[in-house]
Every structure is written in C-alpha cells, then in structure tokens.
Amino acid sequence: MFTSPFVKLRVTYKPMKIIGLDFGTKYIGISISDMQQKMAFPRGKAEQNKLIPEVKKLILEEDVELVVLGKPTNLKGQNTAMTNQVEEFKASLEKQISVPVQFYDERLTSKIVDRSLSSMNVNTRKRRELKDTLEATQILQSFLDQKNARK
Question: Which residues, including other chains, have CB under 8 Å from residue 17's CB and lie 6 or more apart?
Fold first, then answer.
C-alpha cells in the first residue's frame, strides 16, 4: 500500500439534528432539535398514515441523524397496551427511513405538558391542538438533556 506524505485526510464532524416523535392513536407529534442537539422545537403533528413521508422529508431537509420515539410504559416501567402498538410502529418506521430509531421513556410527559398548558391558562380546545406536538418536544428535550448531561 502506498501512502504519500503530501496527502492528508481530513475528517470533519458535521453536527446533525434529531427528530422526536410522540405516537398517538390518531396523530403523531413531531419535534426537532437544533444542530447542537441542545434544544427541542415543536414541528407539528401528522396523521399516522401521513407520517412516513413527513419524516423522510425532514431527514433530507434538516440533516437528521436519529429519530427518538417515545415509548409508553406505566409508572413502574412496565409495558402497556399502547407499548405493543408503538413497538410495531417503530419496526415499520425503521424499514422505511435511512436513520436509526431509538426509544425513549415517555413516562409523565403528558402530565408535564398538561400542567404547563394549565399554568399558562390555555383553553381546552387549544390544549388538544397543541398536546401531541408539545409531548414530542418534551420527549426530545428530555432525551437531549440526558444525552448532554453524560458529556
């Protein structure tokens, strides 16, 4: 093998974003991180049957390296009826996109979002409208906080 002293290989790391998803029976909340993977931002919600094209588009347009999917469990960390649906959804999603999908514990996410919206005096109709997206944002922010705390 020939190596030249004149050729140097430069490897650079380009920071990439992370998508957060909150699975619901009708809608799936979507959030996305910044490039530094410090902050999560709401991105909207999609119906289940329209989610895959939306996620594929985000992966390409936003330089996404990972999808974080909230995994529903009860307070003891045990699987629930919804857990099986989410596991099936994760398997399907992994087959259709080009980045890994990772579970993240979503316990108490709904409570945190509900209390935040309540403390801001957001009416019930608006809460229902925002809930999926804000839960996805809470899941992703918790994931980012834990990830960055380990550094």
Answer: 32, 33, 34, 35, 37, 62, 63, 64, 65
DSSP 52-100: HHHHHHHHHHHTEEEEEEEE-B-TTS-B-HHHHHHHHHHHHHHHHSSS-
Beta pairing class for 101-105 and 64-71: parallel
The string of pLDDT tens digits covering residues 61-71 is 999 999 999 99
Amino acid at residue number 42: P
d(Cα 104, Cα 73) in Å, to the nearest integer? 10
pLDDT in tens, 104-144: 988 777 777 677 767 777 777 876 777 888 889 989 999 99
Query: Residue 72: which of 149, 135, 134, 150 has the closest Cα?
Result: 135
